[in-house]
Amino acid sequence: MTPRRRHGTSRPEEGHCSDHPARLDPSPWNRKAIWQPSPGRCARCPDTSPDTAHIDLLTRRFGLRMAPKNFCRVRVDVQLRVRASGRWWHPWTSQSQARGAIRAGQRLRGGVPHLRRCGRVVGHRAGGRQRGVAGLEPDERALNSVQLLSFLKTTAHITGKPRYETEYKKLAWDFKYADWITRLNEFRQEMNYSDEELGMLPYYCVFQYEKDPALLKAYRSGVDEWWKNIQREANPLWTFIYLTGQPEADIDLPAAVWTLYRMPMDTIEWTVRNSHRADIQWATSPDRFGEREALTLLPPDERRVMKWNSNPFVVDGGGNGHGEDDGAAFLLPYWMGRYHRFIVGE
Question: What pTM, to 2 d.p., does this model score?
Answer without folding.
Answer: 0.72
